[in-house]
Specification:
Length: 480
Amino acid sequence: MSATAAPYAAMVLDARSGEVLHSENANTRLHPASLTKMMTLYITFEAVQHGEITMDTMVTVSRNAASEPPSKLGLREGQKIKLRYLVRAAAVKSANDAATAIGEAISGTEMAFAARMTRTAKALGMNATTFKNANGLTQSGHLSTAHDMSLLGRHMVYDYPQYYNLFSRVSTDAGMREVYNTNRRFLRSYKGADGIKTGYTRAAGFNLVASAERGRERIITTVFGGRSTSTRNAKVAELMDLGFKRAKTNVALRKPSMPAYLGNRGLSVMVAKSADPSPEGARGKTVRVVAAAVTRSLRPQARPGTGEVDVAPLVAEIEGDIETVLAQVQTAEETAVAEVPAPPQVADASKTAPDMSIKPMRRPQQIVLATAAAAAVEPIVETTAEAAPASQEVVTRVSTSGGRHWGINVGRYPSRYAAEKVLLKTALMETTTLDGSLRKVVNRSSGFDANFMGLSRETADLACRRLQARQVTCFMIGPG
């Protein structure tokens, strides 16, 4: 197997200090291929350390993960397997299905996990890197540099040393079978080599981030765009020799700083901002992101200066005044909203209700919408009955949210079937707000969007907040 068109780039670091000993095209953004899995595993180690997941957690394999192309472990949809075996398969065999399953287990969807990968990259100083998936298969916008991957390799060595030995294993038990290291030739042939990760795609060429230790010196070498495994390994060995020759003997160890831990917080907004990248010059709909992860209690607090809030009446007595009841319901709802200035008082819009029925009467064709008071809250427009002639009906509460033209997105999936399955599962989970909405799958260039449409803005916002409280990725879609 060989690659002839992939661009070449390289960097050599003194791992102890981070000093650059050699650099060639190191800041050129290129396809990282399976070097990507270093970040997948870095976040996995972070998640284990902070209790998000354990190495013994049983991960259920999704259709998306099982359908990844080789290199793969051979996972089956619905199969349950311990996280530790997925980690071994991704680190040693470079299994794409294992990497995807890891990402979905930690962040819910591969898209959300990719957003976390990119955020972590920025925190590590990998400012030219963006990730779109957990395994490194070629995808538009999934790019990195030799410089950034060298930084990541250095963090892999020092941030989680208890797991670093994975990368030096020539073979390992991956639960289903024994797997062999894709980097075993270099590990066996170069003195002191103990990792880290290979990568190959047709677009990337043969990539490798390697680390070797001799005495008190440790060198990290990164090569992008090798023409074959053998020529890449030869080049890495040449650069390693250069690094050991240039490295100073007595250098104080200055470990890199670990990034602040954020977990999965805020990923829904990041996914929304990165979703559906349009080609240059393309014009399309705008997705407005107005929801974020729940960070505090959603329970409304009473307005200062008011007493106990009365329970809104649900059923009017036959001889009661229907319009009065509606006004009371409206007042009770507004009183429950936190920190809302006191609205103008609402007078009854009708004198009497029908004597024998509580069925609402047909609205007249001519309706006058009264002007809202200056202090009214945006979604509510109020007036008093005295503001309109007796022959006209006054609407005392009008929505300005654009009607039922809003929607929510609950992820992007590799197949229509997967998107429809998630929509059905979500609809059953959140019947309160999604009942009556339209389940819609939209085919994008990078997958199938799972959307619920036909919601009001208030309902869409509430639905997203309720779903995010259940750790379900969600963002709102505005009208148009």
